[in-house]
Amino acid sequence: MNLKAGICLLSASLLGLVFSARAMADSKDLKLNKEIIDNSPVLQRWLVAPPDILFDIYNSPSFTSKVRLGITSRDQSLGFELGVSDIFLGSSPITVSANYQQEFSGLESNLNADLKYYLLPLGGHFNIAPQVGYRSIEFFGNNVSGVDVGIMGILILSPRSADLRLSHTFTSPQSDRETSITTLSTSYALSNRLNLGSNIQWRRSPVRSDSRVGFYLELRL
Description:
This protein has 4 helices and 10 strands. It has 2 domains: 3-59; 66-220, monomeric porin ompg (Porin). By secondary structure, it is α+β, with helices and mostly antiparallel strands. It has helices at 3-28, 34-38, 41-48, 53-59, and strands at 66-74, 77-88, 94-103, 108-117, 126-139, 142-158, 162-171, 179-189, 194-204, 210-220. Strands 1-2-3-4-5-6-7-8-9-10 form a 10-stranded antiparallel beta barrel. Helices cover 21% and strands 52% of the residues.
């Protein structure tokens, strides 16, 4: 580094220190109306412990764990679905999801559970997660079951309130009954704890290829 560059860098550093010191002095002189403070629990909390925005972005999920119950329809055959989604394992970016779906006719049922590993900061507006688990599908006297692998992307429309998800999975890959399922789902908050969810699912299998729609009430945990 030449002398001129070193002087410029030193000047910039000193200027930054001056502005930081001035900002700290100004903050100490800040006077807030006591009534405003008394009526704002958030402000009270921030005055005691200022929020760490960067920490929140990396560690506070912008989506929630949910329990859901709903109605499904495939080829005009109604059914029900019960499930849980994104139960976090401690403070890790790993979640557990599981669901069971069955048609009222008894001709078809689906049971699956999976682990997802979110690759991006949990507080962001977009994330992607590879997933691995187990799925068993019973349909019209046939069974497809085994390892279920895939990937899911999530777009946060409103933090902890609304999201859009797209996933694609393979059940029993590389077998003669390999089945792929693509699912597009959305969830939107109706109240502080309740969401309305919906999805459309496309299934391709040597046994049967079809589509399914579902509508759900979801309880945020």
